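Late entry, written up from scratch paper. The run itself happened at the end of the previous shift, but nothing got recorded in the book at the time, so transcribing now.
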Amino acid sequence: MKHKKDKKKTVGREYNKIDSYAWAFRKLWKLDSMFVLLLIAGVPVAVVYPLVQSLFTRELIDAIGQGKAFGELAAVCAGFTGAIVGLQLLQEFLNSKCRARHYYPTIAYQTELFRKTGYETDFENTEKQDFREIFGYASGDACSGRCALEFVWGDVKEMLIRVAGVVTYVSLLAFINPVIFLMVAIVSACSYFTARWQPVYYERHKKEWEKETRKKGYLQNLSNDFGMAKDIKLYGLEGWLDKMMRGYQAYILRWNRRCSLRGVWAASFSGLMELVRNGVVYLYLIALLAEGGISVGDFVFCFGIVGSISSFMQGIIANIGELSSKAEKIGYYRNLFDYPDRFNHGEGCRIPTGAVSIEFRDVWYRYQGAGEDTIKGLNLTIRPGESIALVGKNGAGKTTLVKLLCGLYAPTKGEILVNGKSIDQYNIEEYYAMISAVFQEVRAVAFTIREFVSSADSDRPDAEKDVETALKTAGLWEKVQSLPHGMETHLVKGIYEDSVDLSGGEMQKLLLARAIYKDGSILVLDEPTAALDPIAENTLYLQYRDITNGKTSVYISHRFASTRFCDRIVLLQDGVIAESGSHEELMALGGQYAYMFGVQSKYYNETQDLNQNKTA
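Output as recorded:
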């Protein structure tokens, strides 16, 4: 499998690293200020604890060397042991409190993230490639694994401890010999580039395998989709899918090996630098001790301090690289929340009730990355209570048009007015309450049938009665009654013990029942009879006037016979209105509608004649 190398590009906005941490700190403080205080409180304890241990060793050795009495030695041991135990207990107390709380921020952030993508952002954003990439980074990097935000704060705490430790220990070491500090600083600084080598390489080349990771994830989800099992088996896709999966895995592993190899070299060089540093410093300390420049206690103390300073400085260098990398990951999270919405999610004008007027005024729409517009300067006015049918060839723009009307897409240019006001003037969530829609995509949710139908307004006084009425109108009531638990039966097998899977036609009736129950001012039906049998389809046609009574409705269908129930028929062609009028007017016009209607009716007539001949 060949993979083309894509040019590296930045996804979303880049943020200043310090500003990113300030942003994250403000969010954490607002979410759990006690967690922040516990983190800060642990810093001085972590710095003082090893220092007290080193001081204990020095004082005890010097006391023994000076030949002090047993009582004095016991007092030194008791005093330092008490301090060490007290600090150890305090440190464990603070750490346990932090451990008990540190998962909460990430859980809260994850909830906030998925609420943003699932409920709050514009639907149109969720279909955009750059938004999906940002979401992939945010959910994969900023909210899971070692990059999760609770671990970020652990890194910040470690950084604070190491900086405070260096400042404290260097101040002590300066009284003994500043030359030792310079030796440690120079050698430790040499480790900076090796510490940054692997993470910088990873971030620089991340896009080389990120797309393959996303494709691999898609194949994994495909393999777990029971609905695809019949297609995979009947069309022999197992080998093809397995080959693709192996190709993606091999490609990702190659890049992982490259990153790991750089990690090995970095660790080897770091070990060599540590060996050099320890050798030079320890030889210098031995020389001082031999010349009588320091006591045995001071030698041991300096020995421990040098090791601690060296460890702190190496840790700081590693922390700089780690925190820099994680600041970029916080940026992914910020990018998701800063992604612009085009609709109004704030205060809006009052939502109208009853049938409404709709006007498309010079509306254009182009999908992200498309070479041309799908809707091109469309002008259309629908009167209150009018029922129109949208017809046309596949790709003419019918579904795009109703998604624009539903507030799922925002026009690239132009505006859509409902009762004389632009959709932008309404709060979009409140605007959705006006829409009862049935789209071509049929997807069940693991609710009970009653919950599924009444999900838009389950708390209304006569909810159960209205659900029953909607199911009867949609032609699904007999099926529901035949189920052991009736309306309380769960959908989607495998979730609940009583779950059922409805057929395609039954699911379409269930979606229609949900739209009827919602009783919105605007009714949108996008191929609502595609999966229905002829009898059920005919029943829907007969009930169409009752279903659309008091509503402004838009009906999409490729079955031209069904459009005759509508007040007006609009033929779309290449994103513009090619013809508009009643069935009789369009047939008299003799244009594209009349031709397409004739093709369909001819087929039905020929089929009917053939069946009659067979019967004869």
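The longest helix spans residues 238-290.
(Scratch paper discarded after transcription.)
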